[in-house]
Design goal:
The complex is a heterodimer of chains A (about 100) and B (about 775). With about 100 residues, chain A is α/β, with parallel strands linked by helices. Chain A has three helices and five strands. Helices cover about 40% and strands about 35% of the residues of chain A. Chain B has 16 helices and 29 strands. In chain B, strands 1, 2, 3, 4, 5, 6 and 7 form a seven-stranded antiparallel β-sheet that branches. The chains are: A alpha/beta (about 100), B alpha+beta (about 775).
Chain lengths: ~100, ~775
């Protein structure tokens, strides 16, 4: 899985990945974002996940998203999801994540 | 009871003993009651003799007294010569030695106006000489005042009797003895009583007489069954009943001396109503001093009575003794005879029978034995017959064993001629088939068969040849081969069955016939032609429905009429349809009460089977039939064939690999390929993907904690449904039991885990879990 992570401003990062967020990749995806947050000099409060090239998200992927949301929320940060396809949106709805996540 | 010969014989012996005892008891009773009067009479007669002796004494004394009275009268009438009279009396007395003494006694002044008293008394003195005694004339004695004189005189005077008796009295003048005195009257010419004569009777001599009586216990006077035992405890009473006093008694319980002359009421056992015995049955028993006595009463003419009391036990001692001997003798015979009978029967009949029984048992077990009995002759003959029989049995058994082994080979050949490797076509996913035959003891006529008749058409059949045994088996093999060969030629079903029937008719010389249910299925389209030739109706289960009997019009059985036409039932099978066929060995299996299993029971048994695996269905039905039959012997082959139509294999995709995360990629590729092939839309395919990943992860992480195992997945397409089934043989786990998380909680409070299975439940249209054959089976259904 290709994962692109780049900074936005001093307190934000932008993450773009392609392919499946599932059993095989979700952990790697989550770990890389957490590493990026920790490695940053400034405290990261703004994370944007670009889902335009994500084909599929499984419960493992959803779990990673929830963890990330909780982490940022604890630091008064914001998690944004960008370009979520209708199909992926259904997955979020099933578990009720649509009620608190920010979609752009 | 009395089932064995031995107990019967014993019972007869006891019965004989009982009869003998009863007969003898009756005889003994009759003997006793017949003999008792005889015994009584015997004693009575014996006592009569004593009575006569005493009676003789009495008569003598009374005659003596009368004689003396005559002399007294002569003395008065003649010259009153006293000396002469003395001499006469002395002379007379000399001739009557039984008496103590006797004399004549006159009233005052009758003979001589100057003499107040005049008497002549003679007696035998100590020297044995008869002398007269003048002292009785004395003033001191004054006989006129003596009781005996007054008693006798007044009795004669008042009662005008010839002879009168005095009370016993003690004579204190000369002899000092106890006596009684008899007397007669002396009269003058005008008939006035002027004096009396007396004769004395010494009581001790009467007592001596009484004590002389002795008795021997006998049955009767002539009896040879005499014990010779003397009766000891008898006693007698001699009394004057007229005047009611005791003369003498020998009662050992009383003071006899003091009773002499006393009233009879002083004898404790005496009763006024004692009369002569002679009727033994009426004899009153006297119970006296703890003993029973029988009184014999003998009356004398002068009012005196002799009563002899005999102790009853001693009287009948001889009778009892005789009875005892008779009882012992006959009882011992009564026991001895049946016992001998029993023992000899036991020895000569029971023992040989036991020997023969034991030998027969051994022969029955197949042991090689022979019997030797020499006696009795009948059993010796029987034994030799047995030996011959044993030889015959040996020969027959050998032949039987040979036939049996040949039959069992035949049975094996027959069984192995039926296809018995399942699944028979592992590559063919379009259908499942399972068949089994549980043969009865004999070789039978049931069979089944299945084969492809061309590339897609599959034929299966189940049949039952009439009859049993080798002919049926041979016929069955012929029919089976025939059908198999003819089916390959390419006839239509209608043609095929007609030809089969004709060929069977040709080969059938024994008048056997075959019932058959056959079905030809197009494995790609599910089109089926079912032909029922007089066979049990099959059961059919349509997809998710229940089993029901397929109501086919019956055709004639095969092998009877040539050129018969057959009606064929055409239908289309859908994936999941199951056809269950069987022979009457299933439905007519009987229990121990001889009640049949029946078609209703078969139907409900099948409907209680949830599994759709043909092998499991067969096992469960067989188990149900065997459980019903319990211990009843299986009389017919139990044969069944189960066909399950799955549809063409394109509708099923299977995945089977080790349950490890490394295989996840190939798993979802498999799923994607299937979705692409079946044109599953993106939404459904996404749902499948999400569920598949979650379940794959569950199984690969948790199902096999200590080892490696397989994950099997199957994706089926039926009409508008996609059925996704997962199987693993790991730890038992039902994910549906896990509680749902609360998705309305604020995100901060929500746990990270527990989402997956919840999601699956949300996504799938139906979800079910079962544990079967140690496998977790999770089935998801999606509506397309």
């Amino acid at each position: 899985m290709d994962i692109l992570i780049k900074g936005i401003g001093i307190d934000g990062i932008y993450v773009k990945a392609s392919g499946r967020l599932d059993l095989d990749n979700a952990v790697e995806y989550g770990t890389k974002i957490k590493d990026a947050i920790e490695e940053s000099v400034e405290a990261i409060t703004n994370v944007t996940l670009d889902f335009s090239e994500i084909d599929f998200i499984s419960s493992f992927g959803l779990k990673v998203v929830l963890e990330l949301y909780k982490q940022l929320k604890a630091q008064n940060g914001v998690l944004k999801l960008k370009s979520v396809s209708e199909q992926l949106m259904n997955s979020f709805k099933i578990v009720g994540f649509d009620k608190f996540l920010l979609f752009e | 009871m009395f089932k064995t010969l031995k107990s019967k014989i014993l019972a007869i012996a006891i019965a004989v003993l009982a009869v003998i005892t009863v007969v003898f008891m009756a005889y003994a009773y009759a003997f006793e009651s017949r003999t008792k009067p005889l015994v009584m009479d015997y004693y009575s007669g014996y006592i009569e003799v004593f009575k006569d002796e005493i009676n003789n004494d009495i008569i003598k004394i009374e005659n003596n007294s009368k004689d003396l009275a005559l002399i007294g009268n002569l003395f008065y009438k003649t010259d009153k010569n006293l000396d002469l009279t003395k001499e006469v009396i002395k002379k007379i007395y000399d001739n009557y030695p039984d008496s103590l003494g006797g004399g004549i006694w006159f009233e005052p002044y009758v003979i001589d106006k100057s003499r107040k008293r005049l008497c002549v008394y003679a007696y035998r003195n100590a020297e044995g000489n008869v002398v007269t005694d003048e002292s009785f004339n004395s003033e001191e004695y004054n006989y006129l005042n003596q009781n005996w004189y007054k008693e006798i005189f007044s009795q004669i005077k008042e009662k005008k009797v010839d002879v009168a008796w005095s009370l016993p009295y003690y004579e204190d003048q000369g002899s000092y003895t106890l006596m009684i005195t008899a007397g007669s009257g002396i009269y003058d010419e005008r008939g006035n009583l002027i004096g009396i004569s007396t004769v004395d009777w010494q009581i001790s001599s009467i007592e001596e007489e009484l004590r002389k009586m002795s008795f021997v216990s006998k049955i009767n006077s002539q009896s040879s069954f005499s014990s010779g035992k003397y009766i000891k405890n008898h006693f007698a009473l001699f009394a004057n009943r007229k005047d009611d006093y005791v003369i003498v008694t020998t009662d050992p319980y009383l003071d006899n001396k003091s009773l002499i002359g006393k009233k009879l009421e002083n004898i404790p056992w005496y009763r006024e109503d004692l009369i002569d015995v002679g009727m033994p049955n009426k004899t009153p028993f006297l119970h006296y001093q703890n003993k029973d006595y029988i009184p014999y009463v003998k009356n004398f003419d002068n009012g005196m009575t002799l009563i002899v009391c005999l102790p009853r036990l001693e009287m009948f001692y001889a009778l009892a003794h005789t009875l005892r001997i008779m009882i012992l003798t006959l009882l011992s015979l009564g026991i001895l005879i049946p016992a001998l009978l029993y023992l000899s029967l036991n020895r000569y009949v029971m023992k040989p029978i036991n020997i023969l029984t034991n030998i027969a048992n051994k022969i029955g077990k197949g042991e090689d034995v022979s019997i030797k009995i020499e006696k009795p002759k009948e059993f010796a003959q029987l034994a030799s017959t047995y030996n011959k029989m044993t030889e015959n049995i040996k020969t027959i058994t050998k032949e039987r064993a040979k036939i049996n082994s040949e039959l069992s080979i035949a049975k094996t050949i027959q069984a192995s001629s039926l296809p018995n490797i399942f699944p028979p076509f592992p590559d063919k996913k379009e259908f499942d088939i399972f068949a089994s035959m549980e043969p009865a003891k004999e070789v039978g006529g049931d069979f089944y068969d299945f084969f492809f008749i061309d590339e897609t058409k599959f034929m299966f059949l189940i049949a039952d040849v009439s009859g049993k045994g080798v002919p049926a088996a041979l016929f069955m093999m012929t029919v089976k081969t025939l059908i198999n060969n003819l089916s390959q030629v390419g006839y239509t079903p209608k043609q095929l069955i007609k030809i089969i029937n004709n060929k069977i008719c040709e080969t059938n010389k024994q008048g056997l016939f075959v019932t058959m249910l056959s079905c030809i299925v197009d494995t790609e389209t599910g089109e089926a032609s079912i032909i029922n030739c007089g066979h049990n109706l099959p059961l059919i289960k349509r997809q998710n429905g229940n089993y029901e009997y397929l109501q086919l019009n019956p055709n004639i059985v095969l092998g009877v009429f040539e050129d018969s036409e057959f009606e064929i039932y055409e239908t289309v099978l859908n994936p999941g349809d199951i056809i269950y066929t069987y022979t009457d060995g299933v439905s007519e299996s009987v229990n121990t009460n001889n009640e049949i299993y029946g078609e209703e029971r078969l139907l409900s048994c099948l409907n209680n089977i949830e599994e759709t695996d043909t092998n499991i269905i067969a096992q469960k039905v067989k188990a149900s039939v065997l459980e019903y039959a319990d211990k009843a012997e299986q009389s017919d082959d139990i044969t069944m064939l189960i066909f399950k139509y799955n549809g063409i294999s394109d509708n099923i995709k299977t995945f089977k690999q080790k349950a490890v995360q490394e295989n996840y990629k190939s798993f979802y590729s498999w799923l994607h390929d299937a979705c692409e092939e079946w044109d599953v839309n993106a939404d459904i395919s996404n749902k499948l993907d999400m569920c598949a990943e979650e379940i794959f992860a569950n199984i690969s992480f948790y199902a096999y904690p200590d080892s490696e195992g397989l994950l099997e997945a199957e994706l089926k397409k039926f009409d508008d449904n996609l059925i996704f089934e997962f199987q693993d043989s790991g730890v038992e786990y039902n994910p549906l039991e896990k509680p749902d998380p609360n998705i309305d909680l604020p995100p901060e409070d929500r746990p990270i885990g527990g989402l997956g299975i919840f999601m699956v439940k949300q996504i799938a249209d139906e979800i079910s879990y079962k544990r079967e054959n140690n496998k977790n089976i999770l089935t998801l259904t999606f509506k397309i």
